[in-house]
Amino acid sequence: MSDLFVVDSLTVTLPTSRGPVDVVKDVSFTVGRDDTVGIVGESGSGKSMTALAVLGLLPRGAQTSGSVRLEGTELLGKSERELRAVRGNAISMVFQDPLSSLNPYYTVGLQISEMYQTHRGGSRRAAKHVAIEALERVGIPDPGRRVDHYPHQFSGGQRQRVMIAMALCCSPSLLIADEPTTALDVTVQAQILELLAELQSTTGTGMIFITHDLAVISSIAQRVLVMREGDPVEYGSAEQVFSDPRHEYTRMLLDAVPRIDDEVSA
Amino acid sequence: MTLLQVRGVTKQFVTRSEGAMAKRSTFTAVDDVSFEVELGETLAIVGESGSGKSTTARIAARLLEPTSGSVVFDGQDVTRAGGKELATFRNNVQVVFQDPFSSLNPRYTVERIITAPLTYQGIAPAGGRRAFTQELMERVGLNPDHYRRYPAQFSGGQAQRIGIARALAVNPKLVICDEAVSALDVSIQAQVLELLMRLQRESGFSYIFIAHDLAVVRQISQRVAVMNRGRIVEVGSRDQVFGDPQDEYTKTLLAAVPRINPEWDARRRQKEAS
User: Fold this and answer.
1) pLDDT tens, residue by residue, A172-208
2) How many CA atoms lie within 13 Å of A177's alpha carbon, on the beta-carbon side?
3) pTM for the whole structure
4) Which of A57, A113, A249, B211 has its CA 20 to 30 A from that of B80?
């Protein structure tokens, strides 16, 4: 397996009123093509900070050390301008809340086209065509008409589809999805997970999937990194982490998940 | 004994479009909903967003008046009760909300928060407020020495325990939990669920447990009502609804719940048991 994306001893330090705090401590993992790494943890585990560090989106004053390489190119320490050429292009992201990630004043078509034109150039007409194709790929019915609609005219699940369309329009090598299904209803969540897995198998995009939900991780990730208070607790194949967890904390987490198929005493 | 009866309750909201040609239309959030809660049981109401489950809970708690239909508590029609009648109802029915921090006054100490329901009811606890607070704190698993602290000094799970203690202060017959564990991390959620079940065993009150998480509902409930688009599409015992669902929507909902790979899970449990 070729290592598309390598995170090596990443440490993130944030300044606080009580002095600097390491919110991500010595985290390492690799993502291959067509590979999904799930990062799972409870609140304050540093899972989202890890993603933000990768994208150079950390809050002001944050310090990073270690190495983050995409196809051999070091990303840590790149200038904002250089990173802007990477974000949305070679690495794109999908966040939890599509409504706050989309601009309510622009049609979804314009927002996808803008992303495409920023990185790839070309005419407005060609970009709109890309937007229609992207919407079609994520399963938005009647994309030729829907491309001119505004975010509020879409349901929550459709908005997340639009975000995924936007994230994939430049054919990124790596997709970072941070709690992409957490705000969605369970039936819609199932559809979005299916869509992500299907798109990944057709495009070969590597994926980092961040969530607090162990069941979701189990259904989508090949490898799992468990984090707690900034520490990488356990890292291994999904099968190993779920069937033979090495760390006490992983075991505790797994035990705490309520099971829907379990026999329960009355 | 039937504690609460909700009979044919409908709730419509008037919506208004903007602009010069503004149109008024009504939206039916809850549509002819009926159910009963027995003393000592837990009835879960599950559904996705917009299903009407929270509106139903608010009507049952008399935080909202229904457009039509009635709410009968302990044999008394309380649908439009006011004054003393409503005060008695509030003494018997308490609510625990999803977000512990926004439902606790940040400027009040734990003691003031927990005893607030008594203050409103004009009840003076026998052994004094402090002893009363500390006893309740102990019951919900909080350190009783922390009675003078403020909500911000507690974690999310602890704050939810304060909300639960406050609900129990008046010794209610019915506690309505509206997504009471949804905002909590999974390890904390398991502890709070455990607490809710223990308190019920000790005191014998009923719960209406509103939730979108079916696995959580399975753990805590005896009966389950499934809501979709304002209607109850299926109601039955927990084992019937989960084990042999009749309604198509219930089946879709159950199938969509993400599961930890069952084969991996079984292997782990086997290993841990040995």
Assistant:
1) 999 999 999 988 899 999 999 999 999 998 999 999 9
2) 33
3) 0.88
4) B211
Of A139, A156, A215, residue with least CA distance to B256: A215
Q: Report the sign of the C-alpha dihedral through residues A208, A214, A218, A224, in that order.
A: positive
Among B191, B188, B218, B220, smallest CA distance to B206 is for: B220
- Contact assessment for residue A33 and residue A2, using Cβ atoms and an 8 Å cutoff: yes
Least CB-CB distance to B219: which of A215, A243, A264? A264
Query: Closest approach of chain A CAs to the CA of B257, in angstroms?
Result: 6
Place of tokens 């508590």: B73
* Superfamily covering domain B2-13+27-258: P-loop containing nucleotide triphosphate hydrolases (3.40.50.300)
**A240 contacts: CB under 8 Å, gap ≥ 6:** none
Tell me, what's the pLDDT at A266?
45
What is the Cα gyration radius of chain B? 20
The domain limits of chain B are 2-13+27-258
Tell me how far apart the alpha carbons of residues B8 and B20 are, in angstroms, rounded to a whole number.
37
The structural domains of chain A, ordered by start, are: 5-256 (3.40.50.300)
Distance from C-alpha of B218 to C-alpha of B216, rounded to nearest angstrom: 5
Question: Measured at the alpha carbon of residue A185, what is the angle toward residues A180 and A187, in degrees to the nearest 5?
Answer: 100
Nearest beta carbon to residue B187 from set A156, A253, A259: A253
